[in-house]
Amino acid sequence: MKSNATFFLDEGDLPFPQGSLKKRPQSKRITDLYRSIRAETERLAAPLSAEDQTIQSMPDASPTKWHRAHTTWFFETFILEPFLQGYSVFDPAFNYLFNSYYEAIGPRHPRPSRGLLSRPGMDRVADYRVHVDRAMECLLETADRPILDLIILGLNHEQQHQELLLTDIKHAFSRSPLFPIYKAAPSPPNVTLPPKIDWWPIKSGLYPIGHDASEKGFAFDNEMPRHTVFLEDYALADRPVSNGEYRAFMDDGGYERPEFWLSDGWAIVQAEHWDAPAYWRREGSAWQVFTLHGMQDVRDDEPVCHVSYFEAAAYALWAGCRLPREHEWEVAARRFHSDHEHTHSQHFHPASLTSSRQKAIRQDVWEWTASAYAPYPGYHAEAGALGEYNGKFMINQMVLRGRSCATPVGHDRITYRNFFPPQARWQFSGFRLAKDR
Amino acid sequence: MKSNATFFLDEGDLPFPQGSLKKRPQSKRITDLYRSIRAETERLAAPLSAEDQTIQSMPDASPTKWHRAHTTWFFETFILEPFLQGYSVFDPAFNYLFNSYYEAIGPRHPRPSRGLLSRPGMDRVADYRVHVDRAMECLLETADRPILDLIILGLNHEQQHQELLLTDIKHAFSRSPLFPIYKAAPSPPNVTLPPKIDWWPIKSGLYPIGHDASEKGFAFDNEMPRHTVFLEDYALADRPVSNGEYRAFMDDGGYERPEFWLSDGWAIVQAEHWDAPAYWRREGSAWQVFTLHGMQDVRDDEPVCHVSYFEAAAYALWAGCRLPREHEWEVAARRFHSDHEHTHSQHFHPASLTSSRQKAIRQDVWEWTASAYAPYPGYHAEAGALGEYNGKFMINQMVLRGRSCATPVGHDRITYRNFFPPQARWQFSGFRLAKDR
Amino acid sequence: MKSNATFFLDEGDLPFPQGSLKKRPQSKRITDLYRSIRAETERLAAPLSAEDQTIQSMPDASPTKWHRAHTTWFFETFILEPFLQGYSVFDPAFNYLFNSYYEAIGPRHPRPSRGLLSRPGMDRVADYRVHVDRAMECLLETADRPILDLIILGLNHEQQHQELLLTDIKHAFSRSPLFPIYKAAPSPPNVTLPPKIDWWPIKSGLYPIGHDASEKGFAFDNEMPRHTVFLEDYALADRPVSNGEYRAFMDDGGYERPEFWLSDGWAIVQAEHWDAPAYWRREGSAWQVFTLHGMQDVRDDEPVCHVSYFEAAAYALWAGCRLPREHEWEVAARRFHSDHEHTHSQHFHPASLTSSRQKAIRQDVWEWTASAYAPYPGYHAEAGALGEYNGKFMINQMVLRGRSCATPVGHDRITYRNFFPPQARWQFSGFRLAKDR
Amino acid sequence: MKSNATFFLDEGDLPFPQGSLKKRPQSKRITDLYRSIRAETERLAAPLSAEDQTIQSMPDASPTKWHRAHTTWFFETFILEPFLQGYSVFDPAFNYLFNSYYEAIGPRHPRPSRGLLSRPGMDRVADYRVHVDRAMECLLETADRPILDLIILGLNHEQQHQELLLTDIKHAFSRSPLFPIYKAAPSPPNVTLPPKIDWWPIKSGLYPIGHDASEKGFAFDNEMPRHTVFLEDYALADRPVSNGEYRAFMDDGGYERPEFWLSDGWAIVQAEHWDAPAYWRREGSAWQVFTLHGMQDVRDDEPVCHVSYFEAAAYALWAGCRLPREHEWEVAARRFHSDHEHTHSQHFHPASLTSSRQKAIRQDVWEWTASAYAPYPGYHAEAGALGEYNGKFMINQMVLRGRSCATPVGHDRITYRNFFPPQARWQFSGFRLAKDR
């Protein structure tokens, strides 16, 4: 991540109603932000038992307890140790246990074995969080930039793990024959099929892409530098593809017809016997889907979710369209964006399409784009351990844009670049169509 | 297992001081036995947190919580459901979750995924145990043979899982960089090297082998029927091989010299980089070993433990001896056996050799024999699900005899046949030498 | 293998009509034997093209070319190099390429990569054989025991590879969609169902087992020493199980009913989707089988072949019988044996049961026994590389007795112990039933 | 691939001296082209024995024999069957055996099992080629567009396989302990270190990219349509990185320092123990490299070759530069390109840098670019089987530009897009540096 010119602090950083904070000094406002984001992690973990917080259902996913500790380790390692004089490390062993992937920090516990860590227990992790929070409060009293920039980074980092905490426990619960419920479902609205897709037209020309470092507000280094691209004429759908539309693809033999699939995708379809999005299961002639509210009927009015890039691309070809490139997504988002009621606090299955139809390009599912994750022209990773934050993952991944129903409020941005391998399905990932004009 | 003629109830079944029970009616005495064995499982699990009880460190090992539930399911499925009128199953889903391997009972949760079961939690498993225990108490009030036979079987089954509970959590803890301590170590005696091995001589001839069904006392079906074998002259060592002796093998290049190894064993040595027993690790020029009391120095006076059959056989060849066949072990045990103070309640690393030297062939480590696990002549597995208890595992496993420091008091027998694949090392497995005369 | 007292030379060693040889000095007779066995290998390889001789269809199987070279390397390494003064090694690289598993000889080409050896080509392997044969002829002019013993061992070794050459190319051809024909089929006799099984009764008592080293004739070290066993009453079927009988097992759901299967066997049935013996494939409502004569209809009058130990054991349990232990097989063979016309030169699918019904216990399929492969009491492997011949494989394998249609004439013996892992199916392996009386 | 407007035939298509062909009718010239390209395949295969042509050393590589048959099948399937009336298929089984990946054509032999196909033999493959060539000659007498376009496609396809034939046999030979020589080495020039890199500057602006369909000459569909991109200022090195330069990276701990590596690359470095380019091996303190001329000393004046994308990217980061994007490569190539003597007929290890220094951006190694392989804006794969030629591979691969010492004369183009997964090393792949200005 790039610290200079990046973490300019401003209301834009604050995801919550900000009126009351406006007059306070900057470090005070960041203290409030720190408290609220740290508390949100604990709020998300609260419904989960000690056992729930310990299990790991695949190497890509981490235990809840691990997320809680790792985000704390991030503050301890990158902020308290270098900058808070006299800080006493909570437990020296944690540097090995809760380093995720920072080679520069040293060796670490192997990722696929995070689920074997019964110790430290849930309670000791809570103690760890309190220990670090207390020290952070001390530091915040006097901290100035660039330390404040690092704290903002740490908070954005924690927000990313808040979403992962949810996707990872969803995956774990989906593997249990008991299909546990993370949170009771709200009473659902009636199914109302979304109107036909409208197309947002964009004319060919030169467009700016990425975050402008001179602007206010936080962005990750991979969103920078702002640069220029030339785009041909194109159009972008005004909403993601719905379950109902996706079922038409399935009913037309989508999962049995290789002509729609990338070669690697078709290999997975056959090896893994994919015949529907992840978490769907046939129940007689109908489909059910496992959600954080438990097993539910698939709703035709929701955006299709938990599909891989391969499925998104196959659907697009079947539909005679294509997936948008990330630049196309961003340019259209700038033009047609209007914010919408963020629905995630209500439920964790993607919100219905109809309810937010008129509102925004950003939706309740991350949207696969046709762009491989690559550095922007002029990008340079920072030196040192934090330079590993983004840059070293720029291979074999596709960019997703938007946000999901599990993205923390205020964490999304038009320039935000999420990224996952094309076969990944455990994120809240859907897609939107594009076409040439 | 074979129910008729097998589970004759008698003091022989009762592992605890039995004087006080002698005068009571049989079912009352079995009730006491039931209570004490069930309580022992809970006593063994008590030092383990909810998180500890949930993890599974390899497919062969099961979570503590699972052992507690599975042994309960055994009583529910094989005794309460068929024999207690009006019994209400605690949770129908548990039949899927806690069936270990009984094909006749139906499909079951895949073994390698037991560590993904955060639910039911530790507390709900405790409730399950209480529910079943209450029903069992009711049944015991009126039960007669053959139900009492099945209960005795269920209790022996639970005792087997008590030992597995310990070996499995030991394996799990050994994978943690924190090396958790299950139980504080007693103050250890001074190291006193064991005297040289003496040899117990046996003359060639016909010998009876196995449990005599007409005798009192419980035995598993695989210990029967009693039959005759012809043995040539041989001699058996009067104690297992010690750590000190095993280190001489290591120092002589034991793990680098293929001439001592079975071909499959040598392949594992190279693939897994074995250079010492499991749980040993080099600490400078010394060796430490992970135990249920945490990391400790290797003691030369303890029997070598956590070695595979391959290592036992390689050592024997290096030493110019061989491993005993299981018949040879049993015949010598009958001849030279004298009971000894059972040490397991004191500590969970194998007891020192010297302390029990004069006592018995049975020791604090299971002892690999040179015999593949096979049915005795005349063996027939019972019809039905319980016929799966032993018979279907009679392939690719080697017999171990004796008992270990983790074996419940009273669970061992001279005719007892334990069995594991030749590469297994997570059991308390050592070995004793034999030679032709 | 054990050289002393073992390789006493006698007519018993000579597989071919021996009248003409009787009067010649021993080394001359062994020269003839050498020539005929070496020529037989080339005769078996002759129908195979350079490409056929190069491919390797699984790690367990070796290319034809490799068998031809390895058997030659055996003579070069164990006989010519130590005993023929001035012998010049054909190509020093061959010691690495064609050492099968002799750790004492040094490192060797990895077994699964034998199929990558395009060089040396077929013709150069032929040159190698000529080079070694010429040197062997020199040596044979003057050789005496114990060199002659080693030569006899080398010839028995080559005969073992003659059978493997056939089983391995059969496996390779079975993987080709073209189903190549190794040898044109003879005109087959009409199908005549075999008579019901008769049972050969054996009374309980002490019996000698194994090869007596003081007797004439060659035996491998694993057949020795002769020793005594005690057997209970039993009966052995007078012929192997037929395809027709095995189909009744299949029709009764044999491959879908776990109650007949060892646990490891049932796991393979499911993982590999076994539903018939190897090389069978459904053709509408009938079954065909791939043979060295190409694809043919399954004949009900032939012994079932290419079944694993697991299938043999499952069938036996279904039939209310069991598999014989290897001692039982040997004792019955001694009692009821009468030699029969060896059929292998006629065809390479197992001969019909009816044609040889009245003749012998030894048949045209190897017969799985219920005995794990283990050393006989008193067995000691030779020191040095040749000690690796048999001993180091005595784990995780089951003994097969008899011979097959692919066994070279004269290579079989009543005491012969063949051995393969219980899951192996690419050998000509069937089985015979036994029962307690 | 795109047939319309693409395969305009012209001298540009003809890789060989064309003077003599100029006056002949188009189909006649294509007949000559057909003959010369088909003959070139046979010339390349000629040094390889039947055994050499059969082996397959990894799933990504194919046997020589398979390449010869597959390219023939391409003409048979896509041209003769649909367009030559009365054409009789050589062998119906070949459609299954030699279909590479065309799902629309039907099922096919699994790729990793191509090395098990001893049949058809080398000679029968030769017959197949003659059979198809004769039929093609008939067709060529009367063929017109669009059939001629398809034939040109088939010839370009065959040229691609000519290069693969060489890379695949090189990989196979490298796995042999004998290190076979494909072709004797020419006498090598003295080592003359290349001059320092010069940088070709390019100014920011809009640039055309890709093949213009209205131009003469063949191009694959993935090179189209021509479109516009905006590039920032940059500079491109005037030659690839040399072995000598790469050794400086190695000497500086390049393979031990994670800070230079993409995360997936670092994982491979550790798992596969990479410490040098593929085919290099340490010989004391020096390095040797396996080539098609056998094992040779590594020359500091040659371009580094057989490196993965990961190694190229790590080197670039170490050198303070970056890899060029494919658009940058193409634009600089148009500006600075001047043709150079094609060296491949002389040798198959990459030509020395010095000899061609002044000449061209195109060199004797394929050059990794920083661009993921993706469709150009406006790209649509053809309908039908030939639409699978390129489009379905546009995921998880990186684009390489230029050509290699193994690329057939005349097969390269400035717009040519080669592509391989980032971990691939068995192609003749090197790289060139770029930097921002």
Description of the structure:
- 4 copies of one chain form a homotetramer.
- With 437 residues, chain A is of the alpha+beta class.
- In chain A, 30% of the residues lie in helices and 12% in strands.
- Chain A is built from 9 helices and 12 strands.
- In chain A, the strands form 4 sheets. In chain A, strands 10-9-8-11 form a 4-stranded mixed beta sheet. The first copy, chain A, has a 3-stranded antiparallel beta sheet with strand order 1-4-12, with helices on one face. A 3-stranded antiparallel beta sheet of chain A has the order 5-6-7, with no helix packed on it.
- The N terminus of chain A is likely disordered.
- Chains A and B meet through loops of A and loops of B.
- Chains A, B, C, D: Keywords: Iron, Oxidoreductase.
- Chains A, B, C, D: This is Ergothioneine biosynthesis protein EgtB.
Percentage of residues in helical conformation of chain A: 25-40%
Second CATH tier, the architecture of the largest domain in chain A: Alpha-Beta Complex
Distance N terminus to C terminus of chain A? 37 Å
Count of strand segments of chain A = 12
Rg calc of chain A = 22 Å
User: Structural class of the helix and strand makeup of chain A?
Assistant: alpha+beta
Mean pLDDT across all residues of chain A, rounded?
89
CATH topology of the largest domain in chain A, what is it called?
A: paralog of FGE (formylglycine-generating enzyme)
CATH class of the largest domain in chain A: Alpha Beta
Number of helix segments of chain A?
9
Largest Cβ-defined interface: A-D, 35 and 35 residues
CATH superfamily of the largest domain in chain A: paralog of FGE (formylglycine-generating enzyme)
Name the overall outline of chain A: globular
Please provide the ordered H/E string of secondary-structure elements of chain A. Answer: HHHHHEEEEHHEEEHHEEEEE
* Multimeric state: homotetramer
The portion of residues forming beta strands of chain A comes to 5-15%
Lateral arrangement of strands in the main beta sheet of chain A: 10-9-8-11
The overall number of domains of chain A is 2
- The stretches of 5 or more residues of chain A where confidence is low (pLDDT under 50) are 1-24, 340-347, 354-362
Q: What does the largest sheet of chain A look like?
A: 4 strands, mixed
Keywords (chains A, B, C, D): Iron, Oxidoreductase
GO biological process, one term (chains A, B, C, D): ergothioneine biosynthetic process
Protein name (chains A, B, C, D): Ergothioneine biosynthesis protein EgtB
Pfam family, one (chains A, B, C, D): DinB_2
